[in-house]
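Below is how a single chain appears once it has passed through the pipeline. First comes the sequence as given, then the structure the pipeline wrote out for it. We keep one example in the README because the format questions we get most often are answered faster by looking than by reading.
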Amino acid sequence: MYSLLLAVIYLIFMSLGLPDSLLGSGWPTMQVAFKVPSSYAGYVSMAISFMTIISALISPRMIRKFHTKWIVIVSILLTVLGLFGFSFSTSYAMLFLFVIPYGLGAGAIDASVNHYVANNYSGSVMNFLHCFYGVGAVISPNIMALALSKARWNEGYRWTAYIQMGILLVCILSLPLWKMNENNMDTEDEAGAGIRETLKVPGVVLTLIAFFAYCSGECTCFLWTSSYFAGNKEGLSDGLIASFGSLIFGGLMLGRLISGFISNKLGDRLLIRIGITVELIGIIMIMLPISNYLPAAIGFVIIGTGMGPVYPAIQHMAPTNFGKKYSAAVIGLQMASAYVGSTLMPVFFGILQQTIGIGIMPMYLLIFAVLNIGLLERTYVVLRKE
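Resulting structure:
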């Protein structure tokens, strides 16, 4: 039963990754279909992220009132509605109607399942969990690439919605499995701290800014990797450019898979330090002045591999660093902070690249990588003093 529930939880996180990479991989074609500038992808991404911020901020209250399994089922249903809505959109403006269920569903799954796993499972399980997010995020750009070669971009969203419906059915059938942890989770004393109270805990605000920096870099890669190759490398087909959207997600999946095997031995902090060092190596590879696309493609995979352990490690440390009383609120705030970065910084990059050129992307990523590690190291100093 334990293993079966864990398999369902992994599948849930795979469903979380499926919608995230569709916009970036499909945008070079969608932009032409909607007759809008390339930077307009950022506004759609910003709207989705805004809804996830709302969802993340209310997640501590939802965790107190509802069991995680019900939050997950409703959230997946919302993402299915969002995906179908995108697939039937005939204008750029229509996308903004469907970002509401698209974003609300993602934020609720992210916060509730991270809280559930952080309080019930080891760091190894947390990394494997986020590895499956990478599996979903790698699959969907390839679905979009297949749709572009066989049909239209709309089918990429529609086919992904069908997969989500299958995962939703599995979640409904698995409802009895969640009983094993009901006595340990989702009680008011474990998720009792409010947001205002939690913000006063030493070190929390620093981790929120660090999460902002991490997701600013990560989501810039999510949204603009395919466009980087379209604007910086010549002679590439639309299908190949769309498939490059999976590079960063493939790296994330690889990094989290490796971390799953070694995290219990190395610990969360050391994993983060190693990960960001690897990320910096990948950024340097993209900076190399080589016209061939292959070194840059490898560089994005390396960046994703380095980023891999950072997100799950920060989440997994929440109960240890701040106590179970604050863990739900800390994780909800981290999600909100992450999505603020996801909302603003890819949009800002879209405006920046339109003015300076998309070749500025590696330097942009470098700034956030350095900011991320600097803030986390400062957090550890504060926690030691406490």
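Residues 2-176+185-385 form a domain with the Growth Hormone; Chain: A; fold (CATH 1.20.1250.20).

See the next section for the split statistics.
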